[in-house]
Amino acid sequence: GPLQPLRRGAFILLEGCDRSGKSTQAAKLVRQLKARGCRVEHMRFPDRTTPIGKMIDAYLKSTQELDDHAGNDEKIFVKVKVPSSFTSRFSVRLKLVCSASGTSIVVERYAYSGIAFSAAKGLDFSWCKSSDVGLLAPDITLFLDLPICEAGKRAGFGDERYEKEDFQRNVRSQFLDMKHDDMKIIDARKTIDEIHRELVAIAIETIKKCATLPLKDLWK
Ligand code: 2DT
């Protein structure tokens, strides 16, 4: 018979401010997609288990060894966010997983977080964006949108460096400025199960739609 077109996996991104439910929803989504027979991997950015990730983790938790750099936050942050090989290596891995094996990936945070948090710190928006041009573009970005005053009430808010309400408000508006056709705003005030059902439906639709479409690059 005729050759089957190569089917690729979808790149499904969960974005949002802190405590918006990304990790909970990503885990449930991955489990549900697997239960339905989809091949799927779960990744997060930053991955706090890699060597660079450990440095980022220490930075985000403001632990002792980085307190020595007080006043030098900007520099550490730029290293966290940017061009180096870090984001691009991550993107290359995503590309390989999606295309080579037809596996879909559910990713927590990506370039939009990098840009939103960097821009909220006062770095130039275009500059923040420029370092991510050409990375693999998500097929769909699900922005879990929670009013910051609600996030502030959730367990653990305030534990990390960026978990301050004014800062998070700024981050949220940076995110919303990047809204585009492949970004869906999800009302994160709903119950865990309501949100889950919404995400499953969108993920399945995206996986079907993207199977035979080429991968895309960010902002090209
Ligand atoms: P979580 O591990 O709780 O998601 O927090 N961040 C993330 C940056 O500052 N730059 C980046 O490029 C990315 C991807 C957002 C991770 C924190 O790290 C911030 C919150």
From TrEMBL:
One GO term describing the cellular component: nucleus
Pathway as given in its UniProt record: Pyrimidine metabolism; dTTP biosynthesis
Protein name: Thymidylate kinase
Keyword field: ATP-binding, Kinase, Nucleotide biosynthesis, Nucleotide-binding, Transferase
Gene3D superfamilies (UniProt xref): P-loop containing nucleotide triphosphate hydrolases (3.40.50.300)
Domain of life where this protein originates: Eukaryota
Source organism of this protein record: Paraglomus occultum
Lineage of the species this protein comes from: Eukaryota, Fungi, Fungi incertae sedis, Mucoromycota, Glomeromycotina
Stated family: Belongs to the thymidylate kinase family.
GO molecular function annotation: ATP binding; dTMP kinase activity; nucleoside diphosphate kinase activity
Enzyme Commission number(s) from the entry: 2.7.4.9
